[in-house]
Amino acid sequence: MATEDSEHETTPSEGGSNLGIMPASAPPSLLRLAQRVDARLDEFLAAERDRWAGFDDSLGHPIDEIRRLVLSGGKRLRPAFCHWGYVGAGGGDSDQIDIDAGAAFELMHAFALFHDDVMDDADSRRGQPTTHTLSAQEHARNGWDGESRRFGEGVAILVGDLAFVYADQLLEEASPAAARIWNELRIELNIGQYLDILGGVSRTRDIAASERICRYKSGKYTIERPLHLGAVLAAPDRADELLPHLSNYGLPLGDAFQMRDDVMGAFGDEAVTGKPVGGDLIEGKPTPLLARATRLATDAQRDVLELVGDPDMSPETVARVQQVIVDTGGLAELEAHISELTESAVASLDQAPITDAAKAELTLLAEFVSQRTV
Q1: HSE, side-chain direction, 13 A CA sphere, residue 216
Q2: Is the dihedral of CA 98, 99, 100, 102 positive or negative?
Q3: Is the pTM of this model over 0.70?
Q4: Tally of CA atoms within 13 A in the half-sphere of 136 that contains its CB
Q5: If we measure between CA atoms, which residue out of 252, 213, 227 comes closest to residue 342?
Q6: Based on the structure, what is the number of domains in the chain?
Q7: CA 255 to CA 356: how far, in whole Å?
Q8: Are 219 and 158 part of one and the same domain?
Q9: Measured between alpha carbons, how far is 321 from 327 in angstroms, rounded to an integer?
């Protein structure tokens, strides 16, 4: 499936977050914000677990699974963009409302990942077994009635739905203007996911179509919409003034962000990304990278690219496909496009009516998300 999640392989700590995976090149403010968001997530989910496990011990399990995913590490980019949209619009750097919104973004992302893993039939996520895999194993181990696979997938879908509800709960005090942005974000995320699975099965290789998938499946809900939500939380009366400028930054950078993820999905080191080498190629994801390589390929090279999407693809075949993507010039063309998008985003900040502190941090974040290796 589509949703970006290139995190290091890591194991969650018992009492809270594990921020050891934060890349060394990340802006220092990202770690500070991640610590605040993780503390809020830990507090919120611990209270919910105590509430439901006190009623029935088995009801602690769904919340344990949410905690296992959201506190297993992460860059916390969505909370960071929400925070700097908030500060940029005049909000306080140490306020709580945007941290609650950041925690909501992480739970919304978790909802998508739980469902992604079912749709992808993925065995692992961030170096750990996925929820549907563990639940299917539990079913088989106990000899319960029915089919283990269906039980495991059902549990994961319900756990994802619970994360979705919890995300809303953290934003229940938001203004109507903020709620409208939040609802639009959620619609866009689901539309993007649909576009992605449709593009995968139909073997989309069109550049415009693949870039539209790229934008809606991840880019908008990672950068543009968090910026919008943060700004409206701080200054709802300035939405008409602020949002177009934030889109001038957020849309191109969101595209660059997901395109970078696509490069890692095709070429990333499993020891660094926590994903199988060439995972996107095995899954047949309809990426701008693959679309460019297909457009530039010779007939012989196109025959090799037709192997993309074979779940039984060998490591040797993955390497052949990777080499063709390089040889066609598809990778170099996409890298140049990522740089252009990032430069456009940063240049737009000159005209944005936001604070200088936010401009400085958004510049650092643009460099980080477009050039990251995890």
Answers
A1: 20
A2: positive
A3: yes
A4: 18
A5: 252
A6: 2
A7: 24
A8: no
A9: 10
- Element (DSSP H or E) covering residue 123: none
Q: Is 185 within 8 Å of 225 (Cβ atoms)?
A: yes
End position of a domain, from candidates 150, 170, 190: 170
pLDDT in tens, 22-61: 555 889 999 999 999 999 999 999 999 999 999 999 999 9
In DSSP terms, 124 is beta-bridged to: 129
How does pLDDT run across 308-358, given as a tens digit for each residue? 999 899 999 999 999 999 999 999 999 999 999 999 999 999 999 999 999
Alpha-carbon distance of 257 to 156, in angstroms, equals: 27
Is residue 257 situated within a structural domain?
yes
Question: Are 201 and 111 members of one domain?
Answer: no
25-to-11, 86, 237, 370, 371 alpha-carbon distances in Å:
21, 24, 36, 12, 10
CATH number at residue 117: 1.10.600.10
Distance CA 78, CA 153 (A): 27
- Give the integer Cα–Cα distance in Å for 220 and 243: 13
Query: CA 366, 372, 374 angle in degrees (round to 5)?
Result: 135
The residue whose two tokens read 């977050």 is: 17
| Domain span including residue 108 | 27-170
Distance CA 251, CA 255 (A): 6
Element (H, E) at 125: strand 124-125
Helix (H, G, I), strand (E, B) or coil at 7: coil
Helix (H) or strand (E) holding 122: none
Q: Is-contact 105 79, C-beta < 8 A?
A: yes
Mean predicted lDDT score pLDDT of the chain: 91
